[in-house]
Amino acid sequence: MSVRIVVADDQELVRGGFAMILDAQPDIDVVAEADDGVAAVAAVREHEPDVLLLDIRMPRMDGIEAARIVCAETGCRVLMLTTFDHDDYVYDALRAGASGFLLKDVRRDDLVNAVRVVAAGEALLAPTVTRRLISQFAAGPAARPRQTRAEALEVLTARERETLQLIARGLSNAEIAEAMVVSEHTVKTHVSNLLAKLGLRDRVQAVIAAYEAGLAVPGA
Known about the structure:
Elements: E1 3-8, H1 12-23, E2 28-34, H2 37-47, E3 51-55, H3 63-73, E4 77-82, H4 87-96, E5 100-103, H5 108-119, E6 124-125, H6 131-138, H7 146-152, H8 158-168, H9 173-180, H10 184-198, H11 203-212
Helix pairs in contact: 2-3, 3-4, 6-11, 8-10, 8-11, 9-10
Domain HTH luxR-type: 149-214
Domain Response regulatory: 4-119
GO molecular function: DNA binding
């Protein structure tokens, strides 16, 4: 089954270029394009895509607000695109519920892979979005006291905690399986269970939770 995607960018050439690259893939179907945030939200509501490829800076409604609405109202996953590599945009995108964050100078193959990764339920951040940014986000003024956050992890089994810690280190399911000496299917089960128990949307939120609880430490 093809991944259904809406491409939203206010620059026609950029939007058309991304749409052409993605629509050329045998497993990706671009079902609509949008030139601003309002149109992007409307397109998602109408076409019910799997992924919304969404620029951050757009007229009428910016990408952050559009992502917030889409993530709150639908099951569509949001992959953010921007020409800027500023911490604030990363934070806002994560707060809005985005599952991926890429810069617009992303290579063709990396763009296609990002869409597939996000559609499969994984989370993806650009290489420039480091653990330092995630840890700073987690330590922001809106963060809860660390003791409270750590207590929230008590619902997890030892294996689920270990899985969460490895997710926070940036490991894929295959790499986690190798590290824990279990099957990849078992890892997927652990990931699904810990997300459900902690009420998290995806791996991005899981990474934030791990840092908030002190389970992961920058540079460790």
